[in-house]
Amino acid sequence: MINYRDLGLVNTRDMFEKSAKGGYAIPAYNFNNMEQLQAIVQACVETESPVILQVSSGARKYANQTLLRYMAQGAVEYSKELTGGRAIPIALHLDHGDSFELCKSCVEYGFSSVMIDGSHLPYEENIELSKKVADYAHEFDVTVEGELGVLAGIEDEVKAEEHVYTRPEEVEDFTKRTGVDSLAIAIGTSHGAYKFKPGTETKIRLDILEEIEKRIPGFSIVLHGSSSVPPELIEKINKYGGRMKDAVGIPEDQLRAAAKSAVQKINIDSDGRLAVTAAIREVMATKPSEFDPRKYLGPARDALKELYKHKNVHVLGSAGHAWD
Questions:
Q1: Residue 161: its pLDDT value, please?
Q2: Which of 115, 135, 194, 324 minimizes the number of CB atoms within 10 Å of its CB?
Q3: Pairing of strands 158-160, 153-155
C-alpha cells in the first residue's frame, strides 16, 4: 500500500475549495509518457497553476502502473526543481475507472483521486458502485469523482454512441447517497476530436449547469470531453499528411464561462494529442532524414507546453492560483 502523501501528491479537496472561491477550474490533463508529463509540469509551473495528472485505464496498461506511480512522484520533484524548491499542487487521478477493483488498485498504488464511472449502468446500480468506491477510498483520504449522464464520442477506452444529458433532478439524491466528492456531468461536451458536425451550432448546455448548481450549491462539478480542437492544429496535421476532416470541438469561451460558474475541474486530452501529432508530423515531413526521437518528441513536448499554458491562462483561469 502506497499513500499518495508519501509521493508528495495532494488530493482534490483543497483544490476544489479554492477554485470555487476563485472562479476558476483546475486543469486535468491526461498523460501516457515522459514528454507529456514534462509539458504538463512545465506549463503549470510557468503559469503557477495547480494541476490534476490524469491516468486512464488504457494509459495504465500502456505505461505500466509502477512506472506511472514513480512518474507522478517525479513530477512533484521536477516542479520543485523548476520553482527553486516549492512544488505546485499536483493530484494523481484515475480517469474513467470502470470497476471497484481498478479504483481499489489505484488507491493502493498511490493515486490521490479516483473516478468511478457508472454512468452506463442503471441509476441504482450506478449509486451502489459509486458508494462502494467512495466508502473504500475515503478510508485513505482519497477523493472520488462520480458521473451522471453519458458523453458521446470515442477516446482511449471510453466509447458511447449516444449523448444523454445529466438530469438535474437526480444530482442531489446521487451525491447524498454515494458520498462522492465531485460529479462529472453531461451538458454537451463529448469525447474525442469529432464532437460536432461541421456547420452545426456547438453549444454546451449552460442552462443545465445552472440548474444543477442550484440543486447542489457549492458541490464540485466536472466537465469531461472539453477539448476545443483548435482549427490551426487540424490544418497543420492535414498539411503534413494527416486526414482529420470535420474535427470540431467545444468553443473556449463556453468553457471559460463554465469555469467561472460551478465547474471546478475540466478534462482536456484530445487537444494535447493534436498538438503532439501536429508537431511530430511537421518534423517528419520537413526533415525526412531525421531518426532521433528527441528531435521530434522535443518539439512535440514544447508545442504541448504552450497549448497548456494557453489553457491555464485563457480557458480555465487557473494561472496564478497554485499557492492560493
A1: 46
A2: 135
A3: antiparallel
Angle between helices 270-286 and 34-46 (to 10 degrees): 110
In the chain, domain spans: 4-316
User: How far apart are alpha carbons 141 and 11 in whole angstroms?
Assistant: 8
Report the sign of the C-alpha dihedral through residues 161, 167, 168, 174, in that order: negative
CA angle 222/320/307 to nearest 5° reads 65
- Cβ atoms 312, 49 nearer than 8 A: yes
Burial (CB < 10 A; 0-12, 13-18, 19+), residue 246, is exposed
Output the CA–CA distances (angstroms, integers) from residue 25 to 34, 60, 167, 225, in the order listed: 25, 25, 22, 14
What is d(CA 142, CA 127) in angstroms, rounded to the nearest whole number? 18
Q: Which are the catalytic amino acids? A: 95
Residues 100-145: tens digit of each pLDDT: 999 999 999 999 999 999 998 999 999 999 999 999 999 999 999 9
Instruction: Judge whether 184 and 225 are in contact, CB under 8 Å.
Output: no
Give the pLDDT band (50/70/90) at residue 181: very high
In whole angstroms, how large is the CA radius of gyration of the chain? Answer: 19
In the block, cell 502502473 appears at: 65
Q: Which CATH superfamily is domain 4-316 in?
A: Aldolase class I (3.20.20.70)
Helix (H) / strand (E) containing 140: none
